[in-house]
Amino acid sequence: MSRKKNIDLEQTRLNILKVGLSLLEQKGFNATGIQEITTIARIPKGSFYNYFASKEEFCVEIIQFYTKTRIEEWENLLEAEDKGDPYLALHAAFIELAIGYECADPKTGCLLGNLAGEISEVSEDCRMALQDAIGKFKKILELRLLWGQQHSKVRIDLSAPRLADLVWDVWQGSLLRMKIEKSAEPVRNTLETLFEKMLLP
Amino acid sequence: MSRKKNIDLEQTRLNILKVGLSLLEQKGFNATGIQEITTIARIPKGSFYNYFASKEEFCVEIIQFYTKTRIEEWENLLEAEDKGDPYLALHAAFIELAIGYECADPKTGCLLGNLAGEISEVSEDCRMALQDAIGKFKKILELRLLWGQQHSKVRIDLSAPRLADLVWDVWQGSLLRMKIEKSAEPVRNTLETLFEKMLLP
To answer: Which residues bind DNA (chains A, B) (predicted)?
Structure first.
Protein backbone atom coordinates (compact mmCIF):
# COMPACT_ATOMS: atom_id res chain seq x y z
CA MET A 1 0.00 0.00 0.00
CA SER A 2 1.35 3.46 -0.89
CA ARG A 3 2.46 5.83 1.83
CA LYS A 4 -0.19 8.38 0.81
CA LYS A 5 -2.94 5.78 1.05
CA ASN A 6 -1.71 4.80 4.50
CA ILE A 7 -1.79 8.42 5.63
CA ASP A 8 -5.32 8.85 4.21
CA LEU A 9 -6.53 5.74 6.06
CA GLU A 10 -4.96 6.96 9.29
CA GLN A 11 -6.56 10.39 8.91
CA THR A 12 -9.99 8.88 8.26
CA ARG A 13 -9.56 6.60 11.26
CA LEU A 14 -8.60 9.59 13.45
CA ASN A 15 -11.59 11.54 12.14
CA ILE A 16 -13.95 8.66 13.03
CA LEU A 17 -12.44 8.53 16.53
CA LYS A 18 -12.92 12.28 17.02
CA VAL A 19 -16.54 12.16 15.80
CA GLY A 20 -17.20 9.09 17.93
CA LEU A 21 -15.66 10.67 21.01
CA SER A 22 -17.81 13.78 20.69
CA LEU A 23 -20.98 11.65 20.36
CA LEU A 24 -20.03 9.26 23.17
CA GLU A 25 -19.32 12.19 25.50
CA GLN A 26 -22.79 13.58 24.89
CA LYS A 27 -24.92 10.46 24.53
CA GLY A 28 -22.99 7.50 25.88
CA PHE A 29 -22.18 4.18 24.21
CA ASN A 30 -25.56 2.63 23.53
CA ALA A 31 -27.34 5.74 22.27
CA THR A 32 -24.58 6.43 19.74
CA GLY A 33 -25.21 4.64 16.45
CA ILE A 34 -22.66 3.64 13.80
CA GLN A 35 -24.90 5.29 11.19
CA GLU A 36 -24.71 8.62 13.02
CA ILE A 37 -20.91 8.38 13.34
CA THR A 38 -20.39 7.55 9.66
CA THR A 39 -22.82 10.26 8.51
CA ILE A 40 -20.99 12.97 10.49
CA ALA A 41 -17.58 11.56 9.51
CA ARG A 42 -18.79 11.50 5.86
CA ILE A 43 -17.88 7.89 5.10
CA PRO A 44 -20.11 5.03 3.88
CA LYS A 45 -21.64 3.13 6.81
CA GLY A 46 -20.13 -0.22 5.77
CA SER A 47 -16.60 1.17 5.68
CA PHE A 48 -16.68 1.72 9.48
CA TYR A 49 -15.78 -1.95 9.81
CA ASN A 50 -12.65 -1.46 7.69
CA TYR A 51 -11.32 0.55 10.60
CA PHE A 52 -12.83 -1.14 13.65
CA ALA A 53 -13.83 -4.79 14.06
CA SER A 54 -16.86 -3.96 16.22
CA LYS A 55 -18.56 -1.12 18.08
CA GLU A 56 -17.06 -2.54 21.28
CA GLU A 57 -13.51 -2.45 19.89
CA PHE A 58 -14.26 1.09 18.68
CA CYS A 59 -15.26 2.06 22.21
CA VAL A 60 -12.02 0.62 23.62
CA GLU A 61 -10.08 2.75 21.14
CA ILE A 62 -12.15 5.82 22.03
CA ILE A 63 -11.31 5.29 25.71
CA GLN A 64 -7.59 5.03 24.85
CA PHE A 65 -7.77 8.05 22.51
CA TYR A 66 -9.60 10.15 25.14
CA THR A 67 -7.11 9.13 27.84
CA LYS A 68 -4.05 9.91 25.71
CA THR A 69 -5.47 13.31 24.67
CA ARG A 70 -6.62 14.30 28.15
CA ILE A 71 -3.39 13.18 29.81
CA GLU A 72 -1.40 15.30 27.33
CA GLU A 73 -3.63 18.31 28.07
CA TRP A 74 -3.38 17.59 31.79
CA GLU A 75 0.43 17.34 31.70
CA ASN A 76 0.66 20.58 29.68
CA LEU A 77 -1.61 22.33 32.18
CA LEU A 78 0.41 21.01 35.12
CA GLU A 79 3.64 22.12 33.48
CA ALA A 80 2.26 25.60 32.71
CA GLU A 81 1.11 25.99 36.32
CA ASP A 82 4.31 24.60 37.84
CA LYS A 83 6.24 27.32 39.64
CA GLY A 84 8.48 24.93 41.56
CA ASP A 85 5.61 23.43 43.54
CA PRO A 86 4.09 20.35 41.83
CA TYR A 87 1.31 20.13 44.42
CA LEU A 88 0.25 23.77 43.98
CA ALA A 89 0.30 23.11 40.23
CA LEU A 90 -2.14 20.23 40.79
CA HIS A 91 -4.55 22.54 42.62
CA ALA A 92 -4.18 25.22 39.94
CA ALA A 93 -4.76 22.68 37.15
CA PHE A 94 -7.96 21.48 38.82
CA ILE A 95 -9.14 25.10 39.09
CA GLU A 96 -8.50 25.49 35.34
CA LEU A 97 -10.54 22.34 34.70
CA ALA A 98 -13.39 23.68 36.81
CA ILE A 99 -13.36 26.96 34.87
CA GLY A 100 -13.59 24.91 31.68
CA TYR A 101 -16.62 23.05 33.03
CA GLU A 102 -18.18 26.40 33.99
CA CYS A 103 -18.26 27.40 30.32
CA ALA A 104 -18.96 23.97 28.85
CA ASP A 105 -22.37 23.43 27.26
CA PRO A 106 -23.45 20.65 27.39
CA LYS A 107 -21.65 19.72 30.61
CA THR A 108 -20.57 16.27 29.51
CA GLY A 109 -18.30 15.62 32.49
CA CYS A 110 -15.77 12.79 32.26
CA LEU A 111 -16.14 10.13 29.59
CA LEU A 112 -14.50 7.55 31.87
CA GLY A 113 -16.98 8.05 34.71
CA ASN A 114 -19.96 8.16 32.34
CA LEU A 115 -18.93 4.93 30.60
CA ALA A 116 -18.07 3.24 33.91
CA GLY A 117 -21.69 3.56 34.95
CA GLU A 118 -23.03 2.45 31.59
CA ILE A 119 -20.88 -0.40 30.31
CA SER A 120 -18.70 -1.92 33.06
CA GLU A 121 -21.11 -4.83 33.39
CA VAL A 122 -21.70 -5.44 29.71
CA SER A 123 -18.27 -5.19 28.07
CA GLU A 124 -15.24 -6.77 29.66
CA ASP A 125 -12.90 -5.18 27.09
CA CYS A 126 -14.26 -1.70 27.79
CA ARG A 127 -14.12 -2.30 31.54
CA MET A 128 -10.43 -3.22 31.30
CA ALA A 129 -9.72 -0.18 29.11
CA LEU A 130 -11.41 2.03 31.73
CA GLN A 131 -9.42 0.43 34.53
CA ASP A 132 -6.17 1.05 32.67
CA ALA A 133 -7.14 4.67 31.89
CA ILE A 134 -8.09 5.51 35.47
CA GLY A 135 -4.85 3.97 36.73
CA LYS A 136 -2.91 6.42 34.53
CA PHE A 137 -4.79 9.47 35.85
CA LYS A 138 -4.49 8.33 39.44
CA LYS A 139 -0.72 7.87 39.06
CA ILE A 140 -0.39 11.56 38.15
CA LEU A 141 -2.41 12.54 41.21
CA GLU A 142 -0.48 10.17 43.46
CA LEU A 143 2.97 11.51 42.54
CA ARG A 144 1.98 15.12 43.18
CA LEU A 145 0.21 14.26 46.42
CA LEU A 146 3.32 12.38 47.53
CA TRP A 147 5.43 15.45 46.75
CA GLY A 148 2.98 17.48 48.84
CA GLN A 149 3.36 15.04 51.72
CA GLN A 150 7.14 15.18 51.51
CA HIS A 151 6.99 18.98 51.67
CA SER A 152 4.50 19.25 54.53
CA LYS A 153 1.69 20.55 52.34
CA VAL A 154 -0.49 17.44 52.48
CA ARG A 155 -1.63 15.28 55.42
CA ILE A 156 0.45 12.16 55.99
CA ASP A 157 -1.99 10.01 57.98
CA LEU A 158 -3.16 8.43 54.71
CA SER A 159 -0.91 7.11 51.93
CA ALA A 160 -0.58 9.06 48.67
CA PRO A 161 -2.38 6.26 46.71
CA ARG A 162 -5.28 6.40 49.17
CA LEU A 163 -5.46 10.19 48.86
CA ALA A 164 -5.35 9.85 45.06
CA ASP A 165 -8.35 7.49 45.30
CA LEU A 166 -10.18 10.09 47.39
CA VAL A 167 -9.44 12.92 44.95
CA TRP A 168 -10.43 10.78 41.94
CA ASP A 169 -13.65 9.50 43.54
CA VAL A 170 -14.87 12.82 44.87
CA TRP A 171 -14.05 14.51 41.55
CA GLN A 172 -16.00 11.88 39.60
CA GLY A 173 -18.92 12.11 42.01
CA SER A 174 -19.01 15.89 41.71
CA LEU A 175 -18.91 15.64 37.90
CA LEU A 176 -22.00 13.43 38.00
CA ARG A 177 -23.73 16.03 40.19
CA MET A 178 -22.61 18.75 37.78
CA LYS A 179 -24.45 16.90 35.01
CA ILE A 180 -27.54 16.42 37.15
CA GLU A 181 -27.61 19.96 38.53
CA LYS A 182 -26.56 21.53 35.20
CA SER A 183 -24.11 23.65 37.15
CA ALA A 184 -20.37 23.65 37.75
CA GLU A 185 -20.95 24.60 41.40
CA PRO A 186 -20.47 20.98 42.63
CA VAL A 187 -16.97 20.82 41.12
CA ARG A 188 -16.03 24.27 42.44
CA ASN A 189 -17.17 23.32 45.94
CA THR A 190 -15.40 19.99 45.77
CA LEU A 191 -12.10 21.66 44.95
CA GLU A 192 -12.50 24.00 47.90
CA THR A 193 -13.40 21.10 50.23
CA LEU A 194 -10.44 19.02 49.06
CA PHE A 195 -7.63 21.53 48.73
CA GLU A 196 -8.59 23.96 51.48
CA LYS A 197 -9.74 21.41 54.09
CA MET A 198 -9.44 17.66 53.53
CA LEU A 199 -5.94 17.37 52.10
CA LEU A 200 -4.26 19.80 54.50
CA PRO A 201 -1.79 18.40 57.07
CA MET B 1 -63.57 -0.52 36.40
CA SER B 2 -63.91 -3.19 39.09
CA ARG B 3 -61.72 -3.10 42.19
CA LYS B 4 -60.16 -6.46 41.27
CA LYS B 5 -59.23 -5.23 37.79
CA ASN B 6 -57.64 -2.13 39.34
CA ILE B 7 -55.58 -4.31 41.68
CA ASP B 8 -54.49 -6.54 38.77
CA LEU B 9 -53.42 -3.52 36.73
CA GLU B 10 -51.48 -2.13 39.68
CA GLN B 11 -49.74 -5.48 40.25
CA THR B 12 -48.77 -5.79 36.58
CA ARG B 13 -47.48 -2.23 36.63
CA LEU B 14 -45.40 -2.98 39.75
CA ASN B 15 -44.07 -6.15 38.13
CA ILE B 16 -42.98 -4.20 35.03
CA LEU B 17 -41.22 -1.66 37.26
CA LYS B 18 -39.37 -4.41 39.15
CA VAL B 19 -38.28 -6.15 35.95
CA GLY B 20 -37.26 -2.82 34.40
CA LEU B 21 -35.30 -1.81 37.49
CA SER B 22 -33.34 -5.05 37.49
CA LEU B 23 -32.47 -4.63 33.79
CA LEU B 24 -31.64 -0.92 34.10
CA GLU B 25 -29.34 -1.62 37.05
CA GLN B 26 -27.39 -4.13 34.98
CA LYS B 27 -27.45 -2.65 31.51
CA GLY B 28 -28.47 0.99 31.76
CA PHE B 29 -31.25 2.85 29.96
CA ASN B 30 -30.36 2.57 26.30
CA ALA B 31 -29.32 -1.09 26.27
CA THR B 32 -32.59 -2.14 27.92
CA GLY B 33 -35.31 -2.82 25.35
CA ILE B 34 -39.06 -2.73 25.85
CA GLN B 35 -39.24 -6.18 24.20
CA GLU B 36 -36.90 -7.63 26.84
CA ILE B 37 -38.89 -6.05 29.68
CA THR B 38 -42.24 -7.31 28.40
CA THR B 39 -40.87 -10.82 27.70
CA ILE B 40 -39.54 -11.18 31.26
CA ALA B 41 -42.67 -9.56 32.73
CA ARG B 42 -44.79 -11.95 30.57
CA ILE B 43 -47.00 -9.32 28.99
CA PRO B 44 -47.60 -8.54 25.30
CA LYS B 45 -45.11 -5.93 24.03
CA GLY B 46 -47.83 -3.49 22.97
CA SER B 47 -49.44 -3.46 26.39
CA PHE B 48 -46.36 -1.78 27.90
CA TYR B 49 -47.79 1.48 26.64
CA ASN B 50 -51.01 0.91 28.58
CA TYR B 51 -48.91 1.46 31.68
CA PHE B 52 -46.28 3.97 30.59
CA ALA B 53 -46.57 6.67 27.92
CA SER B 54 -42.95 6.28 26.80
CA LYS B 55 -39.66 4.62 27.71
CA GLU B 56 -38.54 7.97 29.12
CA GLU B 57 -41.58 8.26 31.39
CA PHE B 58 -40.95 4.63 32.42
CA CYS B 59 -37.38 5.56 33.37
CA VAL B 60 -38.61 8.49 35.48
CA GLU B 61 -40.91 6.09 37.34
CA ILE B 62 -38.07 3.58 37.78
CA ILE B 63 -35.93 6.32 39.34
CA GLN B 64 -38.78 7.23 41.72
CA PHE B 65 -39.49 3.56 42.52
CA TYR B 66 -35.79 2.84 43.17
CA THR B 67 -35.48 5.92 45.37
CA LYS B 68 -38.56 5.11 47.44
CA THR B 69 -37.47 1.48 47.92
CA ARG B 70 -33.85 2.31 48.74
CA ILE B 71 -34.78 5.13 51.12
CA GLU B 72 -37.10 2.77 53.01
CA GLU B 73 -34.32 0.17 53.24
CA TRP B 74 -31.88 2.87 54.26
CA GLU B 75 -34.19 4.24 56.97
CA ASN B 76 -34.80 0.70 58.31
CA LEU B 77 -31.06 0.05 58.39
CA LEU B 78 -30.40 3.36 60.16
CA GLU B 79 -33.12 2.63 62.69
CA ALA B 80 -31.81 -0.91 63.35
CA GLU B 81 -28.30 0.44 63.89
CA ASP B 82 -29.38 3.37 66.04
CA LYS B 83 -28.27 2.95 69.61
CA GLY B 84 -28.80 6.56 70.61
CA ASP B 85 -26.15 7.89 68.24
CA PRO B 86 -27.59 8.79 64.80
CA TYR B 87 -24.11 9.53 63.43
CA LEU B 88 -22.69 6.15 64.51
CA ALA B 89 -25.78 4.55 62.94
CA LEU B 90 -24.90 6.30 59.66
CA HIS B 91 -21.40 4.80 59.72
CA ALA B 92 -22.79 1.34 60.62
CA ALA B 93 -25.39 1.54 57.84
CA PHE B 94 -22.69 2.38 55.29
CA ILE B 95 -20.66 -0.61 56.49
CA GLU B 96 -23.74 -2.80 55.97
CA LEU B 97 -24.09 -1.42 52.45
CA ALA B 98 -20.43 -2.17 51.73
CA ILE B 99 -20.88 -5.76 52.95
CA GLY B 100 -23.83 -6.06 50.58
CA TYR B 101 -21.67 -4.85 47.68
CA GLU B 102 -18.99 -7.37 48.69
CA CYS B 103 -21.41 -10.22 47.99
CA ALA B 104 -23.23 -8.65 45.03
CA ASP B 105 -22.68 -10.20 41.61
CA PRO B 106 -22.85 -8.36 39.29
CA LYS B 107 -21.72 -5.27 41.20
CA THR B 108 -24.27 -2.90 39.72
CA GLY B 109 -23.51 0.00 42.07
CA CYS B 110 -26.02 2.84 42.31
CA LEU B 111 -28.69 3.26 39.65
CA LEU B 112 -28.72 7.03 40.21
CA GLY B 113 -24.99 7.43 39.54
CA ASN B 114 -25.07 5.08 36.55
CA LEU B 115 -28.01 6.90 34.97
CA ALA B 116 -26.52 10.32 35.78
CA GLY B 117 -23.58 9.49 33.53
CA GLU B 118 -25.73 8.02 30.78
CA ILE B 119 -28.84 10.17 30.39
CA SER B 120 -28.48 13.56 32.10
CA GLU B 121 -27.78 15.20 28.74
CA VAL B 122 -30.45 13.41 26.74
CA SER B 123 -33.55 13.41 28.95
CA GLU B 124 -34.56 16.49 30.90
CA ASP B 125 -37.34 14.58 32.71
CA CYS B 126 -34.91 11.88 33.87
CA ARG B 127 -32.34 14.48 34.88
CA MET B 128 -34.91 16.23 37.08
CA ALA B 129 -36.01 12.91 38.61
CA LEU B 130 -32.35 12.15 39.42
CA GLN B 131 -31.86 15.59 40.96
CA ASP B 132 -34.91 15.10 43.15
CA ALA B 133 -33.78 11.59 44.19
CA ILE B 134 -30.26 12.64 45.12
CA GLY B 135 -31.62 15.57 47.13
CA LYS B 136 -33.62 13.09 49.26
CA PHE B 137 -30.59 10.89 49.98
CA LYS B 138 -28.39 13.88 50.74
CA LYS B 139 -30.95 15.22 53.22
CA ILE B 140 -30.66 12.00 55.25
CA LEU B 141 -26.88 12.32 55.27
CA GLU B 142 -27.03 16.00 56.16
CA LEU B 143 -29.25 15.58 59.24
CA ARG B 144 -27.03 12.86 60.71
CA LEU B 145 -23.85 14.77 59.95
CA LEU B 146 -25.37 17.82 61.63
CA TRP B 147 -26.17 15.71 64.70
CA GLY B 148 -22.55 14.54 64.66
CA GLN B 149 -21.36 18.15 64.52
CA GLN B 150 -23.62 19.15 67.42
CA HIS B 151 -22.19 16.27 69.48
CA SER B 152 -18.51 16.88 68.68
CA LYS B 153 -18.19 13.75 66.55
CA VAL B 154 -17.84 15.51 63.19
CA ARG B 155 -15.65 18.43 62.09
CA ILE B 156 -17.39 21.82 62.12
CA ASP B 157 -15.19 23.78 59.73
CA LEU B 158 -17.51 22.79 56.87
CA SER B 159 -21.32 22.97 56.92
CA ALA B 160 -23.36 19.75 57.17
CA PRO B 161 -24.73 20.21 53.60
CA ARG B 162 -21.17 20.55 52.29
CA LEU B 163 -20.08 17.43 54.16
CA ALA B 164 -23.14 15.59 52.81
CA ASP B 165 -22.02 16.57 49.29
CA LEU B 166 -18.57 15.17 50.04
CA VAL B 167 -19.93 11.88 51.39
CA TRP B 168 -22.33 11.51 48.46
CA ASP B 169 -19.73 12.36 45.81
CA VAL B 170 -16.95 10.17 47.17
CA TRP B 171 -19.39 7.29 47.65
CA GLN B 172 -20.61 7.57 44.05
CA GLY B 173 -17.05 7.81 42.77
CA SER B 174 -16.02 4.73 44.71
CA LEU B 175 -19.06 2.81 43.39
CA LEU B 176 -17.93 3.58 39.83
CA ARG B 177 -14.46 2.26 40.70
CA MET B 178 -16.05 -0.80 42.28
CA LYS B 179 -17.72 -1.55 38.94
CA ILE B 180 -14.49 -0.97 37.03
CA GLU B 181 -12.27 -2.93 39.42
CA LYS B 182 -14.88 -5.66 40.00
CA SER B 183 -14.11 -5.40 43.69
CA ALA B 184 -15.77 -3.85 46.73
CA GLU B 185 -12.37 -2.71 48.02
CA PRO B 186 -12.87 0.89 46.76
CA VAL B 187 -16.05 1.27 48.83
CA ARG B 188 -14.48 -0.31 51.93
CA ASN B 189 -11.47 2.00 51.68
CA THR B 190 -13.69 5.02 51.09
CA LEU B 191 -15.63 4.36 54.27
CA GLU B 192 -12.41 4.08 56.24
CA THR B 193 -11.06 7.31 54.71
CA LEU B 194 -14.29 9.19 55.41
CA PHE B 195 -15.33 7.99 58.84
CA GLU B 196 -11.92 7.38 60.37
CA LYS B 197 -10.11 10.41 58.94
CA MET B 198 -11.89 13.06 56.88
CA LEU B 199 -15.06 13.61 58.90
CA LEU B 200 -13.42 13.64 62.34
CA PRO B 201 -13.30 16.94 64.26
So the answer is: 33-52
- Residue B105 vs residue B198, higher pLDDT: B198
Q: Which of A26, A30, A169 sits opposite B170 (nearest CB)?
A: A169
**Interval B142-158: pLDDT, tens:** 999 999 999 999 999 99
Residues B34 and B59 in one domain: no
Cβ-Cβ contacts under 8 Å, B30 against chain A: 28-31, 118
| Residues B43 and B101 reside in one and the same domain | no
Q: Does residue B26 sit in the same domain as residue B115?
A: no
Best of B118, B175, B194 to mutate (most A CBs within 10 Å, chain A): B118
CATH classification of the domain holding B79: 1.10.357.10
Would the pLDDT of A15 be above 70?
yes
Which residue of A108, A121, A188 is the best one to mutate when testing the B interface, meaning the one whose CB has the most B CBs within 10 A? A121
> Is the same domain home to B85 and B160?
yes
**d(Cα B145, Cα B167) in Å, to the nearest integer?**
10
Which chain B positions have a beta carbon within 8 Å of A56's beta carbon? none
Whether A107 and A170 map to the same domain: the answer is yes
Domain CATH code at residue B3: 1.10.10.60
What range does the domain containing B2 cover? Answer: 1-52
CB contact under 8 A, B170 and A173: yes
Q: Spell out which residues of chain B touch residue A158, defining contact as CB-CB under 8 Å.
A: 193, 197
Report chain B residues whose CB lies below 8 A from the CB of A193. Answer: 158, 162, 165-166
Size of interface A-B (CB pairs under 8 A): 155
Percent over 70 (pLDDT), chain A: 100
Q: How many domains does chain B have?
A: 2
How far apart CA B71 and CA B73 sit, in angstroms, is 5
Question: Which pLDDT score is estimated for A65?
Answer: 96
Nearest CA in chain B to A186: B165
